[in-house]
Fold this sequence. Notes:
Mean pLDDT: 85
Shape: globular
Helix content: 10-25%
Strand order of the largest sheet: 3-15-11-14-13-16
Radius of gyration: 18 Å
Number of strands: 17
Number of helices: 5
Order of helices and strands: HEEHEEEEEEEEHEEEHEEHEE
Low-confidence stretches: 1-67
Structural class: alpha/beta
Amino acid sequence: xxxxxxxxxxxxxxxxxxxxxxxxxxxxxxxxxxxxxxxxxxxxxxxxxxxxxxxxxxxxxxxxxxxxxxxxxxxxxxxxxxxxxxxxxxxxxxxxxxxxxxxxxxxxxxxxxxxxxxxxxxxxxxxxxxxxxxxxxxxxxxxxxxxxxxxxxxxxxxxxxxxxxxxxxxxxxxxxxxxxxxxxxxxxxxxxxxxxxxxxxxxxxxxxxxxxxxxxxxxxxxxxxxxxxxxxxxxxxxxxxxxxxxxxxxxxxxxxxxxxxxxxxxxxxxxxxxxxxxxxxxxxxxxxxxxxxxxxxxxxxxxxxxxxxxxxxxxxxxxxxxxxxxxxxxxxxxxxxxxxxxxxxxxxxxxxxxxx
Length: 356
């Protein structure tokens, strides 16, 4: 998932060598050698926590006051004006919306690409204290990675678990500094004291500054991962998601549009979605019969939409791995997601499409 771009098409060789061209739960490659994460298994570790010695490991930040934006660990997750947090319900529809949707399997239903740690499904994260010790990190693609050290504990959960062959994301949000550290293809280094990864990015949650043009991150589109996850504290506790989500598509265009900064395909068909394309659920879609959890997610998709962030299975929406997604909640979500199809979405008017 993470890059897959032909940015340096040498990365495709890395993905192949890591066994990343096939996902474990239905997410596949995009047909041109680039990898996808839709359907990857989760970590099997409770999202938002890790074992000692990484401090409390839990989200000890106070709930955000009414009317405020998303938060975690006592940190605002990007300013209210950031694209991830912007209400796009009244934005114009892109002139090419119908063609983009047609290229993304419009008859296919949505899928919640997350679940419990027991089911090993979703993308995990850990919240670490301000005094979390920083450790050495190294990267295969250091030229597009933010250098270490990173405050990532040895016990940080890895997407897919310790022996996984998928994207192996590691996400750590540090309290106090409100910096978000994200890595792709993560492994403990040979010394056992630090980490080695394919790429890494550090995000200042106070500014939401983009990556440099053409740079990847720990995600194919050069986007942050954590801000685009559906989390149980939002869906089940706050009963409101206040930000856009992320999703995957099988086929993407060799292009990106902000807030993405990185392309992840060699295909030049202008009707394929570029990385960073944003869709929203049509206002006319009836949510009255949906389960409470599904209604929270779909309401957010009407207001904030979701970004194409990677190549994977069409219409796989990302969420955090957490045991609070129990069988009852997930059965309701899966059933209700099947009622929503690609054709129920429209593309929000795009900015400048970058093809280099």
